[in-house]
# Entry
Amino acid sequence: MGYAVPRPIFTPSHSKPTMSKTEKPVVFGTEDLLMSLCNSVTKVLTAASHSQIHYSGMVQRIHKTCLKPDIGCFVLFDGGFSGLVVLNFTSQAAMEIYESYMVSMGMPKDELAGSYTSDEVSNVLGELMNQVLGDFTSKIRRELQTHITQNQPKMLVLNKQVILSVDANLD
# Structure
């Protein structure tokens, strides 16, 4: 399923804007939306960790997912279209992002949580998930002229994989 958005027409300031009937709308498909979400994740986590974050070049639409050890974060969103975002972190990755983010905010390193199971670590990852979704939804609002709302991100410290099943029509 794709979303059609009119292509902007740029004209010099001295001429009047015109719209040709031959202009075709720009269509955004599922892959485009997923890539936009991946770019939001990369942007937020790169800024938080002060390290270059990359994502896999293979992006696909899936119908079920899971939270994996050591920390799983998830958030549902709904509106012009619906979805579920899941981010899984190893304990080492969670601590590295947490420490880098908090030190960059001015927190002394000796006052930071010492374990990935700490509520502080989960709270920071939840805040970062909020920033990811905020960046993504603002791009969607701007580029597709549609509105998306989200629920509160949830973070779980896990020692086993948990499969998520959402009882909703996720487009």
